Structures are given as structure tokens and as C-alpha cells.
Amino acid sequence: MLRPRPRFDQNWSGTYCGSCIGRVWACSLPAIFAWKFDKAITNGRSRNIGLACSGVAQALGFAIGLVLGGILVQTIGWRVGYYICGSAQLVLFISSRWILPKTSSSLECYEAQWGKIKFEIDWIGAGIASTSLAMFAYVLT
Questions:
Q1: Mean pLDDT taken over the chain
Q2: What's the confidence (pLDDT) of residue 134?
Q3: Integer Cα distance of 97 and 102 in angstroms
Q4: Do residues 11 and 28 touch, judged by C-beta distance below 8 A?
Q5: Which residue of 4, 26, 51, 67 shows the fewest CB atoms closer than 10 Å?
Q6: What is the DSSP string of 5-32?
Q7: pTM across the whole model
Q8: What is the pLDDT confidence band of residue 106, given thresholds at 50, 70 and 90?
Q9: What is the distance, to the nearest Å, from the Cα of residue 49 to the centroid of all Cα atoms in its chain?
Q10: Do residues 89 and 75 make contact, with C-beta atoms less than 8 angstroms apart?
Q11: pLDDT given at position 6
């Protein structure tokens, strides 16, 4: 038996702002994947296939995720889906030790990598954006 869907928010602002945040992520993900493929894979057939597969996976993941999420929420509840995703993340995190390729562990390489991260990321902007989104979410609840 289907239960009535609970309301996300008492007014329209929470739903509207949530959909705007989702649209921002949807617009930025293709650019992020293109940048990642540009740095990792040289031009050619393998790069084109990789980009095509990521585009198909995003669309299928979106569609299948909505359907499976609705089925889970209507039948056994959202908490079970949360626990399924959490356990899958834990398994993937533990198995990444053996699946991901080894990198050089020299101290110079490690320090150079952290030096790039320290100076190439806009930490002040990231902090301001994170703080404003957190305060915005707090005001909506």
C-alpha cells in the first residue's frame, strides 16, 4: 500500500533552492569530467569512448537512481537506502587499497603535491562558499 509522500518543506523556498543547487551541480559536472579527462587521457579514440561512457553513466545513474530511490522510500523506507549506500561506500573505500594503482611515495613528490594543493586552491573562497551554504541550509530548516 502506498503511503502519502511527506512534504519536504512547508513553503516553496526550500524546494526552489534545492532545485537550484541541483542545477548548479548538473551544469558543473560535465566541465569537471572534461577537465579530468583532458589531464588524464591523451587525445584519440580511448578519450572519446571514456567521455561517452561517463555521459551515458551520468544519465542512466540519474534515471535509475530516481526510480530505485522512489521504490525504496515507498516500500522499506529511506534509512535502508542510506545504509545500503553507506555500506557500499565503505566496501569501495576498503577495496580501493588494492584496486587503485600505486603511486610514487617519494618525499619530494609528496611535498610537491601538497604544495600545489596549498597554493592552487582558493581556500578563502571555498570557506566562504561552504559557510554561506551551511548558513543558508540552517535558515531553511
A1: 76
A2: 85
A3: 9
A4: no
A5: 4
A6: PPPS-SSHHHHHHHHHHHHHHHHHHHHH
A7: 0.40
A8: low
A9: 22
A10: no
A11: 52
